[in-house]
Amino acid sequence: RKKRPGVVRQKQNIAGAAVALFSERGAANVAVAAICERAQVSRHTFYRCFADKDDLLSFIYDFAVNEHIGRAIESLQVQSGDYDPAQLIGQVVDAILRHRQLAQFIYSEARVPGSTAHRLVDEAYEHAAGAVQRWYQRELGVVPERNLLKSIMAATQWLLQEAMQQGLNDSNIAQAKSGVGRLFEGLYLSMARQAQEREHPSC
User: What Å distances lie between residue 152 and 112, 145, 159, 188, CA to CA?
Assistant: First the structure.
């Protein structure tokens, strides 16, 4: 008899089906029955994996934050010496685009103030901003304002949304990476100049 997939595998299957539906219709407009049909599982299997749809959404949000923001923070925390924003930005953008439907869904849901997605994205930006500030403190001895960092992250989100909406061909991806890279490069140059002025104040 064919072995039934384990809970971890089933969770991934159900979440993938849910993200596809949520990105098409929005989470509020998708019932558990539709998710089961898309994932080709029974309701019993669904409730073996998740308590309800909110539990499924939390699972999806956690994965999104860990995959997109967590990887960037890990890269930044271990990076020292010469700053290579192009490499870091490329890693972050590639991680997001590998899960395009997930990113589209999260970005869409996050537009609603007070929503779970909005709260989690804001928390992720806060966490990422803290990691960036620690990097600047360690490397340059100056710290960019948290609101400025979160604004740059929001601009990054917009650039990636535009690339996804226009179609993810090589040209659009390169353009998005270039735009995001310029944002962070501009930040770095500004902070480096501030550090230099602090070290060598004009007479």
Answer: 20, 11, 11, 12
Is the separation of the CB atoms in 94 and 81 below 8 Å? no
Note the pLDDT of residue 58: 85
Helix, strand, coil abundance in the chain, percent, nearest 5: 80, 0, 20
C-alpha gyration radius of the chain: 20
What pTM does this model have?
A: 0.72
**Backbone φ and ψ of 169, nearest 5°:** -90, 170
- Please state, in angstroms and rounded to a whole number, the distance separating the CA atoms of residues 75 and 128: 11
Cα 133 to Cα 128: distance, rounded to the nearest angstrom: 9
- For residue 8, give Cα distances in angstroms to 73, 81, 97, 166, 186: 25, 39, 23, 34, 42
Running along the chain, 203 residues long, what does each successive block of 10 average in pLDDT?
72 92 87 95 94 90 70 57 61 75 80 80 81 85 93 87 82 86 90 89 63
Q: Contact, 97 vs 160, CB < 8 A? A: yes
